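Continuing the batch. This is chain 6 of the set; chains 1 through 5 are on the previous pages. Same settings as before, nothing changed between runs. Recording input and output for traceability.
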Amino acid sequence: EELGYDLPHGRMLGLPAMEAAQALADLTEIFSQIEAAVLADATGSVVASTLADEERSAGFARAAAELLAAADEAGREGSERLIQVEAALPEGSVFLVRDERHLVAAVTRPEPTVGLVFYDLKTCLRLVGEEPAKKPARRPRKKEDEKGNADGEA
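Output for chain 6:
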């Protein structure tokens, strides 16, 4: 399925960038209140985005990281770092969720269902952070003559 993204980004945590893009595409397809989303690594580099323009994606990721940093500074000294933020404006809201490795930011239309947006963004982070399932190792098949010998036949 073509997603229409030009993502020259490399691999991250063993996952191709396209899988991260697919997670964001699924997020915006399933949850219609999310209009745009970007996934960045801990350094703020864009991993995937629903925005076609790389500069806009990078700007969105930088602004999201700056907003989280400002929110952290505004918090109490010694308190745990924030993992989620919502900034509500009349035109819509900006949601940010982060874990140890990623940040996902989303823009919604006005008056979104806040709990669902946070839940979906956290689910997106979990899916992107999972290692692909490893296939079980195949056991070699015994050759016919070994099988005969194993049964006690000569």
